[in-house]
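[step 3/7] inverse_fold.run input=structure_tokens len=413
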């Protein structure tokens, strides 16, 4: 039997397979980015932004709580079992999105999608961190998130193109059927569990007098990650604001740019650019977090996102151009922040409770989807959708300042 070794080079085959699986996971989210808000307005005649954005709120809340549980399940059972369960729960989603006869069916699809994503995406993160050990975490997270969010963007573009030729439903959602089948087959047949790798790193980890070395309770980890640790608090609030931006853009951009005369295919390009730049950019920013540290990329990434909001929110520009340039800036800023946040959590948490801490961080991060969508719906109803963009930019600025002041660098060279 081959001895277990930590490292990207030593485990490149499994790592590559996990990257492929996460592309399928990300593709499932991309199914909704362009088309679903338009289904709400054009097929079901919904006028209220809060009601339309309810599918994002449902997705974000369910995914956040599932992230919380997934870390505990990963620590207690096996990563592979949780990954497979995530795919099984996601199987009905493309059928519900494509053929659901009412908006309640779309909400049900998003509840299932939130559970599926919370289990499956969390496991691809934990399994890659397990495999590579402590030295290449930034690169590992960069590649993982690049695959996932690159697939989000490509799928958002493809669904926009398909919808412009064949209608909003059901054709764009056929992609999701392929994603679920391929992801489930790979997870069952070729993905191997990685919990043994985490145990090896735990044995190598320097002993600390300030944290429990045995697996602590979820409540202890929740408190430590959410507010007791200055570093983990700073990371968690930055993650929430990042996904607040994503939740806002998910619901607002299709409706905002369509109202300014941009067609469905143009909206598809705007919706695609953000996650594609976000995803591909992490191939560069992931390794940079291992070289420059986590904090600089988090702080400056937040500020670059603010520039994106400014470009999109200012009136007078050509809407398609403003949408594309602003989305590129949002993508660059998020690419800087995302792998650094995940790597920083992994730095700060002991391997014995790291999966649970990552689950808590991802709870707060993905709660940002719901907060962003709810904020955008309320502000959009009373002040207009453009003001939702302004408010998201202001909150992003505040979040970056919090990290600048409170967080200490977590990378140990």
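[step 3/7] decode complete -> sequence:
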């Amino acid at each position: 039997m081959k001895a277990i070794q930590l490292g990207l080079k030593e485990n490149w085959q499994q790592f590559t397979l996990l990257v492929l699986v996460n592309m399928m996971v990300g593709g499932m989210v991309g199914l909704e980015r362009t088309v679903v808000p338009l289904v709400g307005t054009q097929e079901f005649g919904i006028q209220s932004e809060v009601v339309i954005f309810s599918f994002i709120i449902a997705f974000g809340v369910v995914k956040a709580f599932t992230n919380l549980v997934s870390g505990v399940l990963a620590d207690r059972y096996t990563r592979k079992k949780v990954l497979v369960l995530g795919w099984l729960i996601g199987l009905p989603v493309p059928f519900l999105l494509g053929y659901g006869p009412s908006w309640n069916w779309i909400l049900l699809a998003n509840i299932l999608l939130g559970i599926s994503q919370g289990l499956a995406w969390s496991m691809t993160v934990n399994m890659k961190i397990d495999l590579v050990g402590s030295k290449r975490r930034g690169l590992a997270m960069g590649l993982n998130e690049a695959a996932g969010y690159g697939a989000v963007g490509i799928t958002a573009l493809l669904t926009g193109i398909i919808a412009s030729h064949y209608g909003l439903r059901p054709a764009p959602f056929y992609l999701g059927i392929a994603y679920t089948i391929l992801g489930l087959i790979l997870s069952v047949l070729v993905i191997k569990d990685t919990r043994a790798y985490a145990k090896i790193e735990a044995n190598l980890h320097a002993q600390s007098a300030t944290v429990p070395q045995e697996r602590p309770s979820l409540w202890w980890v929740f408190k430590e990650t959410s507010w007791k640790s200055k570093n983990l608090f700073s990371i968690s609030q930055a993650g929430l604001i990042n996904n607040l931006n994503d939740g806002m853009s998910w619901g607002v951009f299709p409706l905002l740019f369509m109202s300014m005369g941009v067609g469905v295919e143009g909206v598809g390009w705007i919706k695609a650019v953000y996650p594609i730049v976000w995803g591909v950019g992490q191939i560069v920013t992931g390794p940079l977090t291992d070289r420059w540290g986590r904090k600089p990329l988090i702080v400056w990434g937040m500020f670059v996102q603010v520039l994106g909001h400014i470009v999109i929110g200012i009136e007078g520009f050509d809407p398609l151009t403003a949408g594309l340039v602003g989305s590129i800036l949002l993508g660059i800023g998020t690419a800087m922040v995302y792998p650094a946040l995940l790597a920083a959590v992994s730095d700060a948490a002991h391997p014995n409770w790291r999966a649970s801490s990552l689950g808590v961080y991802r709870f707060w991060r993905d709660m940002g989807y719901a907060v962003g969508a709810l904020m955008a719906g309320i502000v959009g109803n009373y002040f207009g959708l453009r003001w939702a963009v302004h408010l998201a930019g202001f909150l992003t600025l505040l979040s970056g300042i919090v990290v600048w002041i409170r967080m200490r660098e977590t990378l140990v060279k």
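[step 4/7] annotate
The chain has one domain: 12-190+216-406.
Residues 207-212 have pLDDT under 50 and may be disordered.
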